[in-house]
Amino acid sequence: MEEAIWVRFLNEGVSLLLLIGVGWILYQGMKKNHLLLSEREETFRRYLLFREDLKVRMKLYGEDEHTYRELLRNLSEGWKNFKRAYDQYLETLLKNVTKTNRFLQFLTLALILNSFRLLFESYYFFGLKSRFFYLLTRELSNYVIVALGFFLLKEQGYRFFSMKGEVDKMDREILFYSNHLTEMAEKRALYDEFSPLEKGEGDGKKD
Fold it and tell me: Most buried of the four, 12, 13, 83, 114, by CB within 10 Å?
């Protein structure tokens, strides 16, 4: 009797543990994806401020050829640094989505094998009775959670991986059509991130 209780507890516990594993892996994966996307958007916003400030400076000091060339060089360096950071975020996001998806696939396979084992045992010992169909319904309900997990993971990364780089290209093109100039207090710190300069360079002053 005690052995039968332990067997039943084991049968119930395996499915529960696998579902907990699916939920945990999904939570950790989507949490990291959200963090990467947030950091990417913040970098994008800071670069826009940096670029717009340079555009204003280029208009102000356009007659000074030396300063203009220096600002143009800063703009080029800033774009390269931004592009490198931007691409790195997307590459890391892709790796994390792939890693999370593989873990989910592994746990789903384990869940399928466990469901098959339970259904086979029920059919072998009790036949096609109400117990079998109850167990079938219960096991199928587990896969609603699994399917929802795959759907949420796909939706989170769909915008970045479904169009073979076209969305990435469109995001970058936005950089050349933004004319907003806000949050002036942050601009000085932006130079340190995208185009570090020595004191006195690029501010319109001649040596």
Answer: 114
Domain count, the chain: 1
Lowest mean pLDDT among 45-49, 89-93, 197-201: 197-201
Would you say residue 181 lies in a domain? Answer: yes
Helices (H), 61-129: 65-126
Any residues with CB less than 8 A from the CB of 96 and at least 6 apart, and which? 29, 32, 33, 36
State pLDDT tens for residues 158-205. 766 654 444 455 455 544 544 443 444 455 566 666 766 544 444 444
Spatial separation of the C-alpha atoms in residues 103 and 111, rounded to whole Å: 12
Token digits of residue 78: 């800033």
Q: Domain of residue 138: give its range.
A: 2-194
Tell me the three state secondary structure of residue 182.
coil
Q: Is 171 exposed, middle or buried (0-12, 13-18, 19+ CB in 10 A)?
A: middle
Residue 70 lies in a domain: yes
